[in-house]
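This section describes the prediction task in plain terms. A model, or a person checking by hand, is given the sequence of a single protein chain and must write out its three-dimensional structure as a string of tokens. No templates, partner chains or ligands are provided. The sample shown here is typical of the held-out split.
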Amino acid sequence: MSVQEEIKRFTAPDIQARKGGEPIVSLTAYHAHTARLVDKYCDVILVGDSLGMVMHGLETTVPVTLEMMILQGHAVMRGSKRALVVVDMPFGSYEASKEQAFMNAARVMKETGCGAIKGEGGRRLAETIRFLTERGVPVMGHIGLTPQSINTIGSFRAQGRDEKDWGPIEDDAKAVSDAGAFSLVIEAVAEPLARKITEEVAIPTIGIGASAACDGQILVLEDMLGLSPRVPKFVKRYGNLGPGIEAAISGYADEVRSRAFPGPDQVYPMKKK
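The expected answer:
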């Protein structure tokens, strides 16, 4: 018999039901300790493939592997209790066929215990989204700027800034929604278009560089904490932890070199007889 947790974790249907209601608060996390902090305030924690760039110093998300996502997804699940944990499907793990996507998504969910997966793409991914949801895998969609496509789009540029380009992006949003995704990330899309998509689709939209009118927002945790040296235009820094961490490390190094650390409070004396 399983023991029920005191804190009920959000599910994909819970998030889907938030359409048009209280904004959905989302952040990325890749570690148990950061997940523990984020979990107190967020409805959704995304274990994003951005971990390749943030944690591993990669230039893009393309080299990220399924094993990397599973490892960090497991860590975030251990560190969180309340938020819905969504794990990104990395490049090459779901595009070949809907069957490939199911096998890898099922592996991610079984090995991490996460509540949903995320995949990038619109109309081309719709059949796969339907296949997964019909087989018990909740899917978060992702349209607009899709970083895994960097080698074909050429740069991390905003989408839909010319109204003549709106049609395909709107079609992508509708296709993902109609296929059964429970929510939709809209990344780096012109504000009026993101607002229009939010009004048109039946599922919650989660903006990142999109519009305050979206049903929720997400940022990369390290970006908003001031730990990333370079950030996109859409990032607002809510902290400046980088200089603080550097100052702490510098202070530690100085005390080690001067033999001020460890001091009397950090060493063990002999037992008194």
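For orientation: The first helix runs from residue 12 to 16.
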